[in-house]
Amino acid sequence: MKNKITVEDLNRSYDIIIENNSITNLSSFFDVRKQMVLISDENVYDHYGDLVSDQLNDPLIIVIEPGENNKSFENVEGIISEMLDANISRDATIIALGGGVVGDLAGFIASIYMRGIDYINIPTSTLAQIDSSVGSKVAINVVNRKNSVGSFYDPKLVLIDPLVCGSLPFEHYYAGLVEAVKIGITSNEHLLKLLLKSTSIDAYPQLVMEAIKTKLELVKADKYDHGARQILNFGHTLAHALEIEKGLIHGEAVIYGMALDHTSKDIQDIIETFKQRFNFNQELTLNTNILNNLYHDKKRVNESINLVVVDEVGKGTLKAYSLDDIKERCEHVYAWE
User: Is the C or the N end of the chain the one with fewer CB within 10 Å?
Assistant: First the structure.
């Protein structure tokens, strides 16, 4: 199974390649002889670190602890210090081997190191393959505000090996598929039908391709996230606060956060179907800390935040809600501690 999508941009173009076993044959996709920095986390490196590093030319290897809280200025400074000590030049390439946290952190470092160097994203989770590796957003978290410092920075290449997701724990496999559900509900009825038919690993490569194509259409129309691309925030306004305050994994937080956005009864029934299928059905309660975190969402403009309105599959729109309206919706939709 092999597919390639070329992303055309004013500044540069790059390929997204989806190919089984691509992680075992990196030299077929990029020059492995260059100076490289391999950034991964402990969990992913245990599985794939030796396989990848053995194909590179004596890379600088940096392994971080897993978890959202490691997208920090402290890690940025520490990694950059290691790179400077190792005399990593402007011609080097960073390899991001991991999920969304590693991709965000490595991409952000690439965007600022010596005013920008190349990076290649090799995403190893469904979340990263379907969503976070696509669209050029890179960011870190500051003072408990998710992705509050970042940039738009294109990779040199995104290399997706669907087979690596077969070894993920079920909750992480399904958490990434929530992002495909989001894209299907708001923007692609065909994708949603595919998801309702099957979310198995056998169906997964087709789901990835369909989700990426749809997301890229929105990114092409609104790369810097000022308009149509904000449709992809469906479920995310509350989700980011839930991740910080409740410690939920991203996809689970998103599917709970979808209830805050404005949806019809039919859409609510579809969301419930996937919550049951993915076993994301805990009784969620909110508190004032979550609400305060939500108020500081980076999408806030003055005293309002855009929420997504979906009355019909594939036809998501945006509507500005005041902070008071959002508080009222939270109090109406969710239980409180």
Answer: C
The three-class DSSP label of residue 255 is helix
Mark the ranges of the chain whose per-residue pLDDT is less than 50. Answer: none
Q: Which domain holds residue 58?
A: 2-167
pTM of the entire structure? 0.94
| Alpha carbon distance 173, 201 (integer Å) | 9
| Same domain, residue pair 231 and 287 | yes
Q: How many CA atoms lie within 13 A of 104 on its CB side?
A: 24
* Count of the separate structural domains present in the chain: 2
Q: Give residue for tokens 């971080």.
A: 64
pLDDT score recorded for residue 88? 98
Alpha helices, H only, the chain: 42-44, 50-53, 73-85, 100-112, 126-127, 170-187, 189-197, 204-221, 236-246, 250-257, 265-278, 288-295, 323-333
User: Do 182 and 122 share a domain, yes or no?
Assistant: no
pLDDT digits (tens, 9 = 90+) for 255-276: 999 999 999 999 999 999 999 9
CB atoms within 10 A of CB 146: 22
Residue in the block written with tokens 């169906």:
203
Kind and range of the H or E run holding 39: strand 36-41
318/262 Cα distance (integer angstroms): 9
| pLDDT tens sequence across 195-248 | 999 999 999 999 999 999 999 999 999 898 888 899 999 999 999 899 989 999
Length of the chain: 337
